[in-house]
């Protein structure tokens, strides 16, 4: 009999083996959602040169210093600069240059007068009040300076960060690719989801769709992994050994079912026969106590119990931190929520309770979906994550509790 390992110890053992794949060079737009392998910094100032933030007229502020409502200053307008204009000539004293939003402020000018603040008279303008240096001028690097870190190493690249990288002339970045996962549901009673009802009947027995494959595919993809393949394997040890012995295995393999103690529960033994080294055989969480983990080379194998609720719990408790590490992301740290209802955990294990999550103002709240009034599958359908309760713990409304979720 194997002594169950704690959740914390299980995660520590797994993270010692989990290593993100080597970095790939991609364009910023192709790196969205991936973790940066190195700091990504702006390669140029934005704007590259001082520019106008309004449609108006570039001037030397000292030329309009004496302007008054009853004694305006009159300036000749020489030319027009647009956002695409380059290398403008220096402004001449006593003159103005028409400049549109985003256009360069010519050398010598230190302010822009908004067009609504002047009176236009053909090729001249009248100015009725002085203006401060820097008025309606965005300095070079005023939006972002060259060398500024846009996304630090180990952080996920957001769409907005990718846009800033592109604007600052970053053409290529190093990112960690998404880890690949392969999912296999074990059981002769199961059919691959999506089959026609007639195809689910074998030897007169109607098999039911492997709902745990649908659940796990969804949570893996929500966590940023790629599910490259899903499938159903009947209760045939040789077929499972063959599937686990292939030469081109992904970073993660998950089997569901076959982790109990009956003669048809051979997932762990098949893993050992396939060359996997055990990491742990049982874990001290409920549901999911019969979960095991093993490794071979760069592949981590997770054997999960068959019920979807158990697979849901095991993924969040153990596999999610591994996926983050394989993606090159740092430990997310615990997230807490405020319970909305009272609940008691039975003694004996760490309990993972399905709960719905909601942001109320600045507070994350958790409502348990457990107990006699909540049917298990209905609760699973409404769950956004799981609350972690210790053996024998009692929570009352307003108590803070750790929650595990892919929502954040």
Task: Give an account of the 3D structure.
This protein is α+β, with helices and mostly antiparallel strands. The chain has four domains: 7-21 and 178-326, Molybdenum Cofactor Biosythetic Enzyme, Chain A; 24-46 and 142-176, Alpha-Beta Complex (Molybdopterin biosynthesis moea protein, domain 2), CATH 3.90.105; 51-138, Molybdopterin biosynthesis moea protein, domain 3 (Molybdopterin biosynthesis moeA protein, domain 3, Beta Complex), CATH 2.170.190; 335-404, MoeA, C-terminal, domain IV (Beta-clip, Beta Barrel), CATH 2.40.340.10. It is 18% helix and 32% strand. A six-stranded mixed sheet has the order 8-5-7-6-10-9, with no helix packed on it. Strands 19-14-20-24-23-21 form a six-stranded mixed sheet, sandwiched between helices. Strands 25-28-27-29-31 form a five-stranded mixed barrel. A hairpin with a 2-residue loop joins strand 16 and strand 17. Helix 1 packs across helix 6 and helix 3 runs parallel beside helix 6.
Topology of helices and strands:
Layout: H1 7-17, E1 24-26, E2 35-36, E3 40-41, E4 51-52, E5 56-59, E6 73-81, E7 95-99, E8 111-114, E9 118-121, E10 124-127, E11 137-138, E12 149-151, H2 159-167, E13 173-176, E14 180-186, E15 190-191, E16 201-202, E17 205-206, E18 208-209, H3 211-222, E19 226-233, H4 237-244, E20 252-256, H5 267-273, E21 277-280, E22 285-286, E23 292-296, E24 299-304, H6 308-326, E25 335-339, E26 343-344, E27 350-360, E28 363-368, H7 376-382, E29 385-389, E30 394-395, E31 400-404
Helix pairs in contact: 1-6, 3-6, 4-5
Catalytic activity: adenylyl-molybdopterin + molybdate = Mo-molybdopterin + AMP + H(+)
Keywords: Magnesium, Metal-binding, Molybdenum, Molybdenum cofactor biosynthesis, Transferase
Domain MoaB/Mog: 182-325
């Amino acid at each position: 009999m194997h002594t169950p390992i704690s959740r914390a110890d299980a995660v520590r053992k797994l993270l010692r083996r989990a290593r993100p794949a080597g970095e790939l060079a991609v364009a910023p737009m192709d790196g969205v959602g991936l973790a940066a392998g190195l700091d990504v910094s702006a390669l140029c100032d934005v704007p590259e040169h001082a520019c106008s933030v309004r449609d108006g007229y570039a001037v030397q502020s000292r030329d309009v210093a004496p302007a008054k409502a009853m004694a305006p200053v009159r300036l000749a307008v020489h030319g027009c600069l647009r956002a695409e204009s380059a290398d403008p000539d220096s402004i001449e004293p006593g003159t103005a240059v028409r400049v549109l939003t985003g256009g360069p402020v010519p050398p010598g000018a230190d302010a822009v007068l908004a067009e609504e603040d002047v009176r236009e008279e053909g090729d001249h303008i009248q100015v009725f009040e002085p203006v401060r240096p820097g008025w309606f001028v965005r300095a070079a690097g005023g939006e972002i300076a060259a060398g500024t870190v846009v996304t630090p190493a180990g952080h996920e690249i957001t769409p907005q960060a990718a846009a800033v990288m592109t604007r600052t002339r970053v053409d290529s970045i190093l990112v960690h690719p998404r880890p690949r996962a392969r999912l296999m549901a074990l059981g002769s009673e199961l059919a691959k989801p999506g089959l026609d009802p007639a195809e689910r009947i074998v030897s007169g027995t109607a098999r039911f769709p492997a709902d745990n494959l649908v659940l796990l595919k969804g949570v893996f993809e929500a966590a940023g992994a790629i599910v490259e393949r899903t499938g159903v394997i009947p209760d045939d040890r040789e077929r499972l050994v063959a599937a686990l012995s292939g030469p081109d295995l992904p970073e993660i393999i998950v089997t569901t079912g076959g982790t109990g103690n009956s003669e048809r529960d051979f997932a762990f033994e098949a893993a050992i026969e396939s060359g996997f080294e055990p990491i742990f055989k049982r874990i001290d969480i409920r549901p999911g106590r019969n979960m095991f983990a093993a490794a071979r080379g760069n592949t981590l194998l997770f054997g999960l119990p068959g019920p979807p609720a158990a697979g849901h719990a095991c993924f969040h408790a153990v596999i999610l931190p591994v996926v983050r590490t394989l993606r090159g992301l740092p430990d997310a740290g615990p997230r807490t929520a405020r319970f909305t209802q009272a609940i008691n955990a039975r003694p004996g294990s760490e309990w993972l309770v399905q709960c719905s999550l909601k942001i109320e103002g600045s507070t994350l709240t958790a409502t348990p979906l457990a107990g006699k009034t909540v049917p298990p599958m209905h609760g699973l359908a409404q769950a956004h994550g799981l609350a972690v309760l210790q053996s024998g713990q009692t929570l009352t409304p307003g108590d803070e509790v750790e929650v595990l979720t892919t929502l954040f």
